Amino acid sequence: MRKTAPAPVPVPAPALELPKRLEFVDDYLAYLLARASHLISSEFHREVEASGLTVPEWRVLASLAGGAQRTVGELADIVLSKQPTVTKLIARMHEQGWVERSIGLTDRRQALVALSPVGHQRVQALLRRARSHEARVLGSFGESDSVRLKAILKKLIRLHAPAKTATD
């Protein structure tokens, strides 16, 4: 009698993973931008607060760090806040000696805000830390993708920014 080989024991096939159902927000541009901004900003905002500044103070100082004077309306737009809130913030920052205010040359109703020498000194270390944080965030993208990402975001902002009026 010939022996037959035992029948092979069936091995269960690995369970097939069903693709995860894509939720609306998982692929919605506005959500993705907001979520990425929140995650990245939150990391750096901890450093800002540890330095003794509030996030709005940091945003104003960083916005003025290039040396240009800006109107309160421009600052409100840049720092993502309402103009009355920024007006009060600028008043406090002026009292602390971080910013200087002057009257607009062409429109005396406009207050121009600039960084004071004290404000310039106050923001320098944080500007370096912000660039370092940005480098860590973009590090896995490589230089060309990082440049492209920033260019796309700038274009998106430019295309969706409200039109400037003569009084802006």
What's the quick description here?
This protein is mainly α and 168 residues long. Helices cover 55% and strands 7% of the residues.
Strand content: 5-15%
SS-based class? mainly alpha
Order of helices and strands: HHEHHEEHH
Give the strand tally.
Answer: 3
Shape: elongated
Strand order of the largest sheet: 1-3-2
Termini gap? 101 Å
Determine the fraction of residues in helical runs and give it as a percent range.
40-55%
The residue-averaged pLDDT reads: 88
For the sheet with most strands, the description reads:
3 strands, antiparallel
Total helical segments: 6
Radius of gyration: 26 Å
Low-confidence stretches: none
Helices, strands, pairings?
Layout: H1 29-50, H2 55-64, E1 70-71, H3 72-78, H4 83-95, E2 99-103, E3 111-115, H5 117-138, H6 143-160
Antiparallel strand pairs: 1-3, 2-3
Question: Could you characterize what this model shows?
Answer:
The protein has 168 residues and is mostly helical. It has six helices and three strands. It has a three-stranded antiparallel β-sheet. A hairpin with a 7-residue loop joins β2 (99-103) and β3 (111-115). α1 crosses α5 and α3 crosses α4 (83-95).
